[in-house]
């Protein structure tokens, strides 16, 4: 019972941390009326980008896990305090308009919420005895038990000669060990319950966010101010309804996908893996970024760079999640490269290159590491 | 992907992989492609009509029909993405050369994630639902679409076979905590544990010697297949004789792409131990078994009483530590203090 309560507390604190992180960034970008779900998503991505950088530094220097935990606790506390002080008013303002926003959704929102809760519930009860689970959860358990980062083989507990390049940079499982360390819960509970549920929730939000971008409606510019207001409301309601229907259909299609290779399997059964986050969060959000560029939103040219900033954080967090980060990186490049050339937006090419930088750096390090130009030693 | 190799499938490798990837959910792929084709045709036709009507660019921008600003950019992006991927990672000629070199044969299916097939299908389905201006008709089409997905498409295999409440908060089989406790209780009163614990205390875990000595303070075990992959998730204080790939290969799973032959002495020894645990003692001498146990430093065998041969294990020098949670725990080469 104590473990279950601590696990629930951990899930709550982590969600609040992601919300604070995202809110601070949104406010720094000058958005006054920001979305809470968008802030949580952005916060999740930025937090894991930060974690990747700090954890990689700790891994290379053979620092103990406890040191990483202390660093993350300090950073997390600072972010939460900053969020409360800096963004509290915005949250209250946003919550005040909750009623009208719920009304704009109608009963479809209830179906979306029920389906999202069902995905979270399934992530919570799912029991896995697969070899992959053994590796990823074992990596967290081993790190916590030995107070090290990635230096022992998680599948049998032996000392590694060198850290395997395939897993050396995908440090998401170590985050589970950090959560377990900070909240005094077993690593298996942190990985398979706490983070699993958060990941399931974040994936559903990512799909919802994709829907919001897909169904952005353009208001008619020839209308009068009064008409624009009325039309704006109608457009807003239509976008909400379409997004809700899209999310429902998407979750149903995932639930009724026939093979173990499709994203649905990862969404419902493998939420504790970094691969799940790649296919069900990074890919949809990268697709949303691509659609935003094709649609030319946000309309303000200055704000368009935020799309590429988001893509940068997304790919950096993707490096943390799995070596499969090459998939969203490839997708973004394949969609945006021809577009920028066709539309002769040359500065977009530079932005795309900068956004892809985390992936390119990772790919370079991975190749050099695999060819043994350098190795990441497991001991001094 | 399992069972499909570049050498076997040749140029049809990508197609074979795609067929296996979508399986019985081929309706999704068909619907997505149909949506992309129809949308592209609508956009082309509407643009031609605009040109024929002499509409200028300003008029186009204020078009609220949805043809340009609704499905247009998404369809354009989908086609661009599909063509680019078809030229690169879905290009059979390129894939035939690159995939084996990159060691991606078993994980090629991930390349299909690069084209968001399900979101694209859901997008076109949603647009189809909202095609009608009448709310009642929209609701009917939505209900029909949802019912079609639920009734016609197969439930995800992960969901189908795993919808049960877990045994405990750790989500592992109930036997695992009991067995791990019994092993630790026995091992921590042994001479071996005291010896290595004492030696490990003064050493730095960051050095090779320190880390290796530390590993020797942990019991090394072989578990039955239903428990093997759960043990170290729950208790990393237990080390295992098998690593993941070797164990999967023994169980007949070749999805990792790694093969072990009889030339591999490490695999041969481990296979022999596991054969004995499963009662396959025919042709196995106690000397071979003892040599394999010593060489692999295996200290505990957890066996199912219905499978193992207790007389063979006893003759070979194994000691029954306890019989708990439906399994027998045998120790080998463990001497008690005092």
Short description:
The complex is a heterodimer of chains A (380) and B (338). Chain A is an all-alpha fold. Chain A has helices at 2-28, 36-60, 65-96, 98-105, 108-125, 131-146, 165-168, 172-183, 187-214, 225-255, 263-269, 274-295, 301-321, 326-342, 346-355, 357-370.
List the helices and strands and how they pair.
The complex is a heterodimer of chains A (380) and B (338).
Chain A: H1 2-28, H2 36-60, H3 65-96, H4 98-105, H5 108-125, H6 131-146, H7 165-168, H8 172-183, H9 187-214, H10 225-255, H11 263-269, H12 274-295, H13 301-321, H14 326-342, H15 346-355, H16 357-370
Helix pairs in contact in A: 1-2, 1-3, 1-9, 2-3, 2-9, 2-13, 3-8, 5-9, 5-10, 6-8, 6-9, 8-9, 9-10, 9-12, 10-11, 11-12, 12-13, 12-14, 13-15, 13-16, 14-15
Chain B: H1 6-9, H2 13-22, H3 26-53, H4 57-61, H5 72-87, H6 92-102, H7 117-129, H8 135-152, H9 157-162, H10 175-187, H11 191-201, H12 208-215, E1 220-222, H13 225-234, E2 239-240, H14 244-250, H15 265-277, H16 286-296, E3 300-303, H17 310-315, E4 318-324, E5 327-332
Helix pairs in contact in B: 3-5, 3-7, 7-8, 10-13, 11-12, 15-16
Explain what the structure shows.
The complex is a heterodimer of chains A (380) and B (338). Chain A has 16 helices and no strands. Chain A is mainly alpha-helical and 380 residues long. The mean pLDDT of chain A is 91. The longest helix of chain A is centred in the N-terminal third of the chain and has 32 residues, at 65-96. Chain A is globular. In chain A, helix 11 (263-269) crosses helix 12. Chain A has one domain. Chain A is 77% helix and 0% strand. Chain B has 338 residues and is an alpha/beta fold. Chain B has 2 domains: 6-131; 175-332, no CATH class. Chain B has 17 helices and 5 strands. Chain B has helices at 6-9, 13-22, 26-53, 57-61, 72-87, 92-102, 117-129, 135-152, 157-162, 175-187, 191-201, 208-215, 225-234, 244-250, 265-277, 286-296, 310-315; strands at 220-222, 239-240, 300-303, 318-324, 327-332. In chain B, strands 2-1-3-5-4 form a 5-stranded mixed sheet, sandwiched between helices. In chain B, strand 4 and strand 5 (327-332) form a beta hairpin. At the A-B interface, helix 1, helix 6, helix 9, helix 10 and helix 11 of A face helix 2, helix 5, helix 7, helix 8 and helix 9 of B.
């Amino acid at each position: 019972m104590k473990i279950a309560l601590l696990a629930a507390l951990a899930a709550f604190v982590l969600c609040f941390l992601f919300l604070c992180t995202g809110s601070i960034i949104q406010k720094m970008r000058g958005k006054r009326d920001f979305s809470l779900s968008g802030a949580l998503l952005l916060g999740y991505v930025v937090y894991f980008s930060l974690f990747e950088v700090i954890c990689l530094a700790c891994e290379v220097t053979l620092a103990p896990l406890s040191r990483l935990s202390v660093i993350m606790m300090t950073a997390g506390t600072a972010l939460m305090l900053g969020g409360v002080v800096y963004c509290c008013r915005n949250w209250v303002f946003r919550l005040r308009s909750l009623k009208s926003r719920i009304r704009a959704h109608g009963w479809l929102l209830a179906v979306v919420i029920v389906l999202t809760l069902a995905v979270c519930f399934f992530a919570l009860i799912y029991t896995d005895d697969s070899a992959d689970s053994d590796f990823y959860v074992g990596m967290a358990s081993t790190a916590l038990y030995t107070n090290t980062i990635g230096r022992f083989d998680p599948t049998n507990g032996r000392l590694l000669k060198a850290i395997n390049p395939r897993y050396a940079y995908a440090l998401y499982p170590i985050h589970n060990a950090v959560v377990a360390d900070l909240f005094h819960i077993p690593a298996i509970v942190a990985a398979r319950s706490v983070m699993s549920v958060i990941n399931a929730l974040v994936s559903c939000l990512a799909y919802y966010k994709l829907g919001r971008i897909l169904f952005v409606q353009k208001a008619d510019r020839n209308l009068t101010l009064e008409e624009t207001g009325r039309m704006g409301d109608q457009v807003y309601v239509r976008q909400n309804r379409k997004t809700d229907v899209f999310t429902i259909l998407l979750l149903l299609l995932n639930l009724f996908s026939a093979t173990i290779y499709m994203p649905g399997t990862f969404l419902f059964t493998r939420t504790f893996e970094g691969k799940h986050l790649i296919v069900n969060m990074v890919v949809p959000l990268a697709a949303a970024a691509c659609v935003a560029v094709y649609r030319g939103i946000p309309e303000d040219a200055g704000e368009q760079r935020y799309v590429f900033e988001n893509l940068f954080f997304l790919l950096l967090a993707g490096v943390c999640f799995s070596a499969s980060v090459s998939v969203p990186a490839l997708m973004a490049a394949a969609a945006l490269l021809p577009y920028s050339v066709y539309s002769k937006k040359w500065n977009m090419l530079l932005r795309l290159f900068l956004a892809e930088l985390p992936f390119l750096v990772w790919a370079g390090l991975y190749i050099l590491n695999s060819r043994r130009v350098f190795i990441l030693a497991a001991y001094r | 992907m399992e069972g499909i190799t570049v050498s076997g499938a040749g140029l049809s490798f990508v197609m074979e992989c795609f067929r296996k990837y979508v399986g019985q959910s081929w309706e999704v792929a068909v619907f997505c492609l149909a949506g992309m084709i129809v949308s592209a045709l609508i956009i082309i036709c509407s643009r031609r009509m605009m040109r024929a009507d002499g509409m200028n660019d300003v008029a186009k921008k204020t078009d609220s029909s949805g043809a340009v600003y609704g499905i247009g950019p998404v369809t354009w992006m989908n086609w661009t993405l599909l063509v680019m991927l078809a030229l690169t990672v879905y290009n059979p000629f390129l894939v035939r050369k690159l995939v084996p070199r990159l060691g991606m044969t078993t994980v090629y299916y991930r390349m299909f994630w690069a084209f968001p097939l399900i979101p694209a299908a859901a997008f076109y389905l949603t647009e189809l639902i909202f095609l009608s201006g009448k709310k009642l008709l929209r609701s009917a089409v939505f209900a029909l679409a949802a019912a079609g997905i639920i009734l016609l498409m197969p439930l995800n295999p992960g969901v189908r076979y795993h919808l049960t409440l877990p045994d405990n908060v750790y989500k592992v089989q109930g036997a695992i905590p009991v067995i791990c406790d019994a092993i630790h209780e026995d091992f921590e009163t042994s001479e071996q544990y005291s010896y290595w614990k004492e030696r490990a205390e003064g050493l730095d875990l960051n050095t090779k010697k320190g880390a290796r000595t530390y590993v020797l303070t942990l019991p090394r075990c072989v578990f039955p297949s239903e428990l093997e992959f759960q043990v170290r998730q729950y208790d990393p204080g237990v080390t295992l004789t098998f690593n993941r790939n070797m164990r999967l290969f023994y169980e007949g799973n070749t999805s990792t792409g790694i093969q072990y032959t009889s030339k591999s002495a490490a695999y041969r020894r481990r296979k022999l131990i596991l054969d004995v645990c499963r009662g396959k003692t025919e042709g196995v001498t106690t000397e071979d078994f003892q040599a394999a146990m010593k060489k692999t430093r295996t200290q505990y065998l957890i066996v199912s009483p219905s499978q193992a041969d207790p007389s063979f294990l006893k003759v070979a020098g194994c000691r029954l530590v306890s019989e708990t949670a439906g399994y027998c725990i045998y120790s080998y080469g463990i001497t008690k203090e005092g």
